[in-house]
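To illustrate the input format used throughout this study, we show a single complete record. The first block contains the structure-token representation of the backbone; no residue identities are included at this stage. The design step must infer an amino acid for every position from geometry alone.
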């Protein structure tokens, strides 16, 4: 057997357990479906088989007494066929839609548990397409597609039994032609299956790019790239069209083969049947009945072309869905068996190195300790590795070398859920869901009371703009919070973190989108939020981290300096260079230690030691 054919059979054999896994929980439903199809196809054969009795007995022998029973029998069979068809379609169509819904939920539940690195390597739009589109065709495995195929085969077998009784010679010739057509179908579907897989991949890519374009429509319009993006989409659509045209060509060949089959079989039956009637080996009614039954034999074979295409597409979608479900989730790591309860919040980096891909280290032997209740600030140029350190603290990534400890426990052995429930994150690129302000704040703690949500909003100064809106906290913020300003979005994100009441807090340029007035209002809220928590701050405005317990200067994946603001300033090293450079570019920055500030030079700093008007209770 050629290697390509062997690989096709191997892929088919590999996916059969998945097909069976889908079918087995619905076996009784399918059994009922097969029973209905048996009734349907058997009753459907009553009319053609009665033709022989109508011609040979009622008409030729003038047995008028048989006419009424024959008509009543045909009428009852027709009613039975119609009723079973309705029940079959109604039953299996609903089952197929429930299967799609269940499978989409399963895929989504799995995808959302994949590691962040997977999402870094795959477009979100493409994943959406795989969750929604690849599953759609699977309905034919449980729905009418599979049962109709089985029903067609059953009809063909019943027809063959009756046809053999009428004329073994003509039945043998018909079977030979059908066998040749089935060989053509086998090779055709072998060619179609990879084309359908490629179509799903292209469709996912095109959908992903379209989602990106629509999501970044302001950038597209800002740089007048509407035509460029339309051209990119057109190229993707053209690739999709080329793929579809390939399948249409194959389908056309199959349709041509089917038409030839019908013509050849019909001509053969006409020639041989006429000779058998004339020679007295077959009655005229037998020829009529055989001709009608031939349609029941050939029609299911032709039906295999459309149903087989649907099933081939379904199997291709199931293969891609299986690939997605086979991706290991975060919690799949057997080494993660330690469950944390209450934590103090000490984070230790012990010679940690990290690379997103082999041979390109982003961090090299980074070591530091963040004691409970302290603030660690990360500064340095873009691309230095600050966000990577934050990602490691948040367990979005795992060190390629070294260890990260949480209260002395290796973080790589801790379950994600037990660690992340102590984590609060406010990122520079604030992400809000297309829901209300209240829903976005409560996202970190869905079970929080209304009073706790409102308290978090007051601390983050969300109330100052939310209560002025017509719908207040029930105002829908739009996709990614587009209906709010950047500062308003960031205040909602800070309120979300306050409500979570975490032990470990990550602030990635948490005030970068705030104007001076808003920033002054929110500094006190951040002071409340940070007090008593292990906090990591990424800041490019060095004035905002002056009171951090330790400042880590990161360059090219290494910590080149560490200390407090005062000690680093006196050291006159890299931190001093960055600070004085900003001081020269900005008029409202802090002066050097020991110097007096001139009136008007004051800049609101991140006052961690301010006495808070009230302490937010541990929720």
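Output of the design step:
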């Amino acid at each position: 057997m050629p290697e390509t054919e062997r690989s096709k059979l191997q892929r088919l054999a590999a996916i059969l357990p998945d097909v069976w896994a889908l079918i087995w929980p619905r076996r009784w439903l399918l059994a009922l479906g097969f029973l209905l199809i048996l009734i349907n196809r058997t009753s459907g054969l009553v009319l053609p088989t009665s033709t022989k009795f109508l011609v040979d007995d009622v008409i030729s022998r003038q047995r008028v007494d048989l006419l009424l029973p024959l008509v009543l029998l045909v009428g009852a069979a027709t009613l039975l066929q119609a009723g079973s068809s309705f029940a079959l379609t109604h039953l299996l169509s609903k089952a197929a839609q429930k299967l799609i819904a269940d499978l989409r939920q399963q895929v989504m539940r799995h995808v959302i548990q994949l590691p962040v690195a997977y999402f870094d390597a795959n477009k979100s739009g493409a994943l959406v397409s795989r969750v929604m589109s690849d599953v759609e065709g699977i309905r034919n495995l449980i729905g009418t597609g599979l049962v109709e195929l089985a029903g067609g085969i059953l009809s063909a077998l019943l027809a063959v039994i009756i046809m053999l009784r009428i004329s073994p010679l003509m039945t043998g010739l018909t079977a030979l032609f059908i066998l040749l057509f089935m060989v053509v179908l086998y090779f055709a579907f072998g060619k179609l299956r990879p084309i359908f897989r490629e179509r799903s991949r292209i469709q996912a890519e095109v959908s992903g790019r379209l989602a990106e374009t629509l999501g970044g429509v302001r950038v597209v319009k800002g740089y007048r790239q509407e035509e460029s993006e339309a051209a990119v989409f057109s190229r993707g659509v053209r690739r999709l069209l080329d793929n579809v045209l390939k399948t249409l060509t194959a389908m056309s060949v199959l349709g041509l083969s089917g038409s030839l089959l019908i013509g050849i079989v019909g001509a053969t039956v006409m020639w041989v049947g006429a000779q058998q009637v004339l020679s007295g080996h077959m009655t005229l009614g037998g020829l009529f009945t055989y001709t009608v039954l031939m349609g029941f034999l050939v029609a299911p074979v032709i039906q295999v072309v459309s149903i087989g295409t649907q099933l081939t597409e379904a199997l291709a979608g199931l293969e891609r869905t299986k690939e997605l479900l086979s991706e290991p989730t975060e919690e799949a790591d057997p080494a993660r068996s330690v469950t944390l309860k209450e934590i103090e919040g000490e984070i230790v980096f012990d010679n940690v190195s990290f690379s997103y891909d082999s041979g390109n280290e982003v961090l090299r032997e980074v070591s530091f300790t963040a004691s409970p209740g302290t603030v660690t600030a990360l500064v340095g140029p873009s691309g230095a590795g600050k966000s990577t350190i934050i990602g490691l603290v948040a367990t979005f990534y795992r060190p390629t070398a070294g260890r990260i400890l949480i209260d002395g426990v290796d973080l790589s052995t801790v379950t994600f859920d037990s660690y992340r429930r102590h984590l609060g994150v406010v990122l520079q690129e604030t992400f809000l869901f297309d829901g209300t302000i209240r829903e976005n704040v409560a996202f970190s703690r869905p079970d929080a009371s209304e009073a706790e949500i409102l308290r978090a909003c007051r601390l983050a100064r969300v109330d100052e703009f939310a209560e002025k809106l017509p719908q207040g906290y029930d105002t829908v913020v739009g996709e990614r919070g587009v209906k709010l300003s950047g500062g308003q979005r960031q205040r909602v994100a800070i309120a979300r973190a306050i409500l979570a009441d975490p032990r470990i807090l990550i602030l990635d340029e948490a005030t970068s989108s705030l104007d001076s007035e808003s920033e002054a209002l929110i500094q006190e809220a951040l002071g409340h939020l940070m007090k008593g928590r292990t906090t990591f701050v990424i800041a490019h405005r060095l004035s905002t981290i002056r009171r951090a317990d330790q400042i880590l200067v990161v360059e090219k994946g290494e910590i080149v300096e560490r200390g407090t603001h005062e000690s680093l300033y006196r050291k006159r090293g890299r931190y001093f260079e960055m600070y004085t450079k900003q001081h020269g570019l900005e008029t409202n920055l802090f002066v050097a230690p020991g110097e007096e500030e001139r009136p008007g030079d004051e800049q609101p700093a991140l006052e961690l030691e301010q006495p808070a008007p009230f302490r937010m209770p541990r929720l």
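Structural context for interpreting the output: The first helix runs from residue 3 to 23. The longest strand covers residues 361-370.
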